[in-house]
């Protein structure tokens, strides 16, 4: 499997010719979505605009998996699958299982907010999602963990992210994400420094990729 990093928290998983895009929100311009073709499916972890864009979804016209409150916002022309905690959704050959993720006390209204375990071809990816308060993670092991590192009270700061990874006892690859609008410059670099001896931090910029 191949991971391709995109803007902010967005990424693509590519396996055997199939491409799943995750959390393409407003940090990715709609015109760029067309360059990502052939995406075969999209997944949305929650309805905040930095992770969800109806315009971007409609631009590529592929099946979507998303929480119920996001599905309710999509036009009927979109083939939408509702994500539910603990239930596996099969989407273009990818098995997606939503997991709990506590976005923290600064939210102004309740939303359905998930982490995601994504499996295909014997590989397991854990996308922590927008988590500000450590939530019990799903059972490992994982080939790759994607963790938000930003701070500001809406997701982990570098120290919280490392504490979460340490508590998971995950010593493999970790990609820090959610860096489209960092309130504190240097968060990603500080995370990478703190990760030494804990896990294998892989800092990817937009367009960069790694094999999983």
Notes on the protein architecture:
The strands form two sheets. This protein has a seven-stranded mixed sheet with strand order 6-5-4-3-2-1-14. Helix content is about 15%, strand content about 30%. β4, α2 and β5 form a beta-alpha-beta unit. It has about 210 residues and is of the alpha/beta class. The protein has a single domain, classed as 4-Layer Sandwich (Metallo-beta-lactamase, Chain A). The longest helix is centred in the last third of the chain and has 11 residues.
Notable characteristics:
Metallo-beta-lactamase, Chain A, globular, seven-stranded mixed beta sheet, alpha/beta, 5 helices, 212 residues, 14 strands
Spatially, the strands of the biggest sheet line up as 6-5-4-3-2-1-14
In round numbers, the mean pLDDT is 95
From the helix content, strand content and strand pairing, which structural class follows?
Answer: alpha/beta
Rg calculated over all Cα atoms: 16 Å
Alpha carbon gap, first and last residue: 5 Å
State the order of secondary-structure elements, H for helix, E for strand. Answer: EEEHEHEHEEEEEEHEHEE
Summarize the structure.
The chain is α/β, with parallel strands linked by helices. It is built from five helices and 14 strands.
Give the helices and strands, then pairings.
Elements: E1 2-5, E2 11-15, E3 18-22, H1 30-35, E4 41-43, H2 54-60, E5 64-66, H3 68-71, E6 80-82, E7 89-91, E8 94-100, E9 114-120, E10 123-127, E11 144-148, H4 158-168, E12 173-177, H5 187-194, E13 200-201, E14 209-211
Parallel strand pairs: 3-4, 4-5, 5-6, 10-11, 11-12, 12-13
Antiparallel strand pairs: 1-2, 1-14, 2-3, 7-8, 8-9, 9-10
Helix pairs in contact: 4-5
């Amino acid at each position: 499997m191949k991971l391709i990093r995109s803007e902010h928290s967005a990424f693509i998983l590519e396996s055997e010719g199939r491409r799943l895009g995750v959390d393409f929100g407003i940090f990715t311009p709609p015109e760029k979505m067309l360059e990502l073709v052939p995406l075969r499916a999209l997944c949305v972890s929650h309805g905040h605009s930095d992770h969800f864009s109806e315009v971007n979804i409609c631009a590529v016209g592929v099946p979507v998996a998303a929480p119920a409150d996001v599905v309710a916002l999509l036009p009927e022309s979109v083939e939408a699958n509702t994500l539910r905690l603990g239930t596996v959704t099969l989407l273009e050959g990818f098995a997606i299982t939503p997991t709990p993720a506590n976005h923290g006390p600064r939210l102004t209204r309740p939303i359905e907010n998930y982490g995601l375990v994504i499996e295909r071809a014997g590989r397991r990816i854990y996308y922590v999602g927008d988590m500000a308060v450590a939530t019990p993670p799903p059972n490992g092991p994982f080939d790759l963990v994607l963790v938000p590192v930003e701070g500001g009270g809406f997701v982990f700061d570098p120290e919280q992210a490392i504490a979460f990874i340490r508590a998971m006892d995950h010593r493999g690859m970790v990609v820090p994400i959610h860096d489209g609008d960092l309130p504190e410059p240097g968060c990603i670099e500080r995370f990478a420094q703190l990760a030494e001896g804990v896990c294998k931090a892989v800092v990817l910029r937009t367009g960069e990729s790694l094999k999983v």
